[in-house]
Design a protein that fits this description.
Belongs to the V-ATPase 116 kDa subunit family. It is built from 24 helices and 11 strands. The chain is of the alpha+beta class and about 850 residues long. Helix 11 packs across helix 15, helix 17 packs antiparallel against helix 21 and helix 22 packs antiparallel against helix 23.
């Protein structure tokens, strides 16, 4: 059987590589992505391995590339991504790459430092320019010029002590300082000046209208110009300390107007020169980054490949001659020749004359599980692996899930309109998958939708099919073939009496409606939900029982493949018989009831004589005598029904002790005959042992001898109780198909009745506007609630039915995934981590 239905057969191989050829051979294997290496040095510290220096060099190169990437993104320069994956460079090329990255980093850091120094100088000159302008305004506002301003300020700053002493003072020359401060610090700065100087300073401030650029981080900051007048050196020292504490920048400001004008002209000239130099610096930086952006993606790929190769070589062992590297690896058996060809290519590239040696080893270890997938089956396999990775070579549920998953979803989601919306969305993602995949967004929700595009498309298509079966499109019906039900009563009486319940039989002309539900049920009132309930409830049980029986049959494939004769005879057969005699018999009763009874008055085959399947099943299990039927009706649906039901229940109950005791007793008897001593503490499942067709791995049934008898009895008891009780609960669990289908249909009908029908009832030009608005609101609710929320709910319920009700019958999921050394996976994971 192919790998689609079982995981690939794996082989543990030993690989011998010459030291000079090891790098090239591992590079070829990384491009191939079919080899999982084992760590042969688990006790050796990562810093004590042979190629740790090369790994460190790669880490350093990655750091430099990340620095370049950050600078490129900061400038918004697009990085060229051809989608090609360059080959891993030769070891000697590492030196050239290191030199290139070192040169680029040093050049970029030097340019950034120069640019920062120029920006800081530009900021200082800009602030000085604003100070000279604003202080000139301060001085010009005072009448009489600077001298009168000084005299008035001097009189204002006479201290309280001088007033108390009655001293008289003449005009005194005041000092002042000017600077800039962040606008948000200005109120606290003003309060501190007032308190520290006891009100003996005079502060004027004005806002700088345009924001200034911080040279350190490039942020835009808002600042204000201030000028402080004071008297005496003591206040001057105090004012400067306060300015320093609030990180205010002080600038020299001449007292004479002519000197201020001369300085302002010099400042403007220097600003113009700085603008020219800054522009040239930015142009040079931009050219460096553009040149680096063309090769950055390829450089990242090359460095990550080199690092991955040396990290893999650290898993190898050196032989005693120090000239040969020894590795152990898991490989798919079908790909051994492909791997040997890749090793030969690597040897030829390295120029080595000694060919590599790949030996297959015998082992009893459980190999990893490897299921080949493509873009279509990948999403379905991911659903299975989310429950648990399959044990080695056990049946893979993914191929069957491709059909059963969207079908069971559609049973709950059946609506032609909603299914069409979902199918079109999935089809759009499939048609545009190359462009959408190339965008590589980090939006997790979108990535989930895009990864499951084929699941979404199939769920939509199957929902359209079940919508046709239900004859349901946005809660309305399609009258494709014309209703086959015709009224046999007086039409006026029927139209006037809203509470009159008509017979579903009606007057049929020929055969019933050829496909799906008759559209007449759409206009039914009281008995519409009753009919839909009965129909959907029965098909839910039918699909559920068939699904569970299929799961039990899958266990037969596992037992026969692993040659587990005991489990085949004393687990599979009793389980299948138990399920068939009780629950499949109940399904048969449903079909017998549908075939034998009809909406006629011809007893004993009329609907009045039809027994309840649920009551019949309960009476069967409890050995109750059925209640007497109505007059002219038969007690049983077919001859010998009572005897068959009693026989079926007795045989089904008899299967329980067989499932419970047969396997442990046979194992105990076999141990006594073979006189095998059990090994304490060893635990494993009968089907979990990896058996290859060639017999190179552990046997499928022999390892029960490694378990204690008490553990076997306990395990078998749990397994039997879980299966017997689970058969009942799992059958009832499939009723969620009926419940969600009914809820979905009712929600769609509520939206139509309560929302869209309001707009459809409006007339005239206003009615068109109202209908447009109501339709938009209805469409939003339909997509948001019925398609997205109800779709997610149905998806989760379908997932539960597969994980619990279906896979529990045969699927262990106790394996571990095959994780080959693959450059594609490493680069993809590295790119994802870099984006985060």
């Amino acid at each position: 059987m192919g790998s689609l239905f079982r995981s690939e057969e794996m082989a543990l191989c030993q690989l011998f590589l010459q030291s000079e050829a090891a790098y090239a051979c591992v590079s070829e294997l990384g491009e191939l992505g079919l080899v999982q290496f084992r760590d042969l040095n688990p006790d050796v510290n990562a810093f004590q391995r042979k190629f740790v220096n090369e790994v460190r060099r790669c880490d350093e190169m990655e750091r430099k590339l990340r620095y370049l990437e950050k600078e490129i993104k900061k400038d918004g320069i697009p990085m060229l991504d051809t989608g090609e994956s360059p080959e891993a460079p030769q070891p000697r090329e590492m030196i050239d790459l290191e030199a290139t990255f070192e040169k680029l980093e040093n050049e970029l850091r030097e340019v950034n430092q120069n640019a920062e120094a120029l920006k800081r100088n530009f900021l200082e000159l800009t602030e000085l320019k604003h100070i000279l302008r604003k202080t000139q305004v301060f001085f010009d506002e005072q009448e009489g010029g600077v001298n009168q301003t000084t005299e008035s300020m001097t009189r204002a700053l006479i201290t309280d002590e001088a007033r108390t002493a009655g001293a008289s003072m003449g005009p005194v020359q005041l000092g002042f300082v000017a600077g800039v401060i962040l606008r948000e610090r200005l109120p606290a700065f003003e309060r501190m000046l007032w308190r520290a100087c006891r009100g003996n300073v005079f502060l004027r401030q004005a806002m700088i209208e345009t924001p200034l650029e911080d040279p350190t981080n490039g942020d835009q900051v808002h600042k204000s110009v201030f000028i402080i007048f004071f008297q005496g050196d003591q206040l001057k020292t105090r004012v400067k300390k306060i300015c320093e504490g609030f990180r205010a920048t002080l600038y020299p400001c001449p007292e004479a107007p002519a000197d201020r004008r001369e300085m302002a002209m010099g400042v403007m000239t220097r600003i113009e020169d700085l603008n020219t130099v800054l522009g040239q610096t930015q142009d040079h930086r931009h050219r460096v980054l553009v040149a680096a952006a063309k090769n950055l993606k390829n450089w990242f790929v090359k460095v990550r490949k080199i690092k991955a190769i040396y990290h893999t070589l650290n898993l190898f062992n050196l032989d005693v001659t120090q000239k040969c590297l020894i590795a152990e690896c898991w490989v798919p058996l079908l790909d051994i020749e492909t791997i040997q060809l890749a090793l030969r290519r690597g040897t030829e590239r390295s120029g080595s004359s000694v060919p590599p040696i790949l030996n297959r080893m015998q082992t009893f270890e459980n190999p990893p599980t490897y299921n080949r997938t493509n873009k279509f089956t990948k999403a379905f396999q991911a659903l299975i692996d989310a429950y648990g990775v399959a044990s080695y070579r056990e049946m893979n549920p993914a191929p069957y899930t491709i059909i059963t998953f969207p079908f069971l979803f559609a049973v709950m989601f059946g609506d032609l309109g909603h299914g069409a919306i979902m199918a079109l969305f999935g089809l759009w993602m499939i048609r545009k998958e190359k462009g959408l995949a190339a965008q590589k967004t980090d939006n997790e929700i979108w990535n989930i939708f895009f990864g499951g595009r084929y699941i979404i498309f199939l769920m939509g298509v199957f929902s359209m099919y079940t919508g046709l079966i239900y004859n349901d499109i946005f809660s309305k019906s399609l009258n494709i073939f014309g209703s086959h039900w015709h009224l046999s009563y007086n039409k006026s009486t029927v139209m006037e009496n809203k509470f009159l319940q008509l017979s579903p039989k009606g007057d049929y002309e020929g055969a019933p409606y050829p496909f799906g539900m008759d559209p007449i049920w759409q206009v039914a009132g009281a008995n519409k939900i009753i009919f839909h309930n009965a129909y959907k409830m029965k098909i839910s049980i039918i699909f559920g029982v068939i699904h569970m029986i299929f799961g039990v049959v899958m266990s037969w494939h596992n037992h026969t493949y692993f040659r587990n004769r005991i489990s085949l005879l004393y687990e599979f057969i009793p389980q299948l018989v138990f399920l068939l005699l009780l629950f499949f018999y109940m399904v048969l009763l449903m079909f017998i009831k549908w075939i034998k009874f009809a909406a006629t008055n011809n007893k004993p085959y009329s609907e009045a004589c039809a027994p309840s399947i649920l009551i019949t099943f309960i009476d069967m299990v409890l050995f109750n005598t059925p209640k007497p039927p109505p007059e002219k009706c038969e007690t049983y649906m077919f001859m010998g029904q009572h005897f068959i039901q009693v026989l079926f229940v007795l045989v089904a109950v008899g299967c329980i002790p067989v499932m419970l005791l047969a396997k442990p007793l046979l194992i105990m008897q076999a141990r006594k005959q073979a006189n095998v001593q059990p090994i304490a503490g060893a635990t494993s499942d009968a089907e979990a042992g990896g058996v290859s067709n060639g017999g190179s791995h552990g046997g499928g049934g022999g390892h029960e001898e490694e378990e204690e008898l008490s553990e076997i009895f306990i395990h078998q008891s749990i397994h039997t109780i879980e299966y017997v009780l689970g058969s009942v609960s799992h059958t009832a669990s499939y009723l969620r198909l009926w419940a969600l289908s009914l809820a979905h249909a009712q929600l769609a009908e509520v939206l139509w009745t309560m929302v869209l029908s309001i707009g459809l009832k409006q007339e005239g030009p206003v009615g068109g506007i109202v209908l447009t608005c109501v339709f938009a609101f209805w469409a939003i609710l339909t997509v948001g609630i019925l398609v997205l929320m109800e779709g997610l709910s149905a998806f989760l319920h379908t997932l539960r039915l597969h994980w619990v009700e279906f896979q529990s019958k045969f699927y262990k999921g106790q394996g571990y995934a095959f994780q080959p050394f693959s450059f594609d996976a490493i680069i993809e994971n590295g790119a994802a981590a870099a984006e985060e």
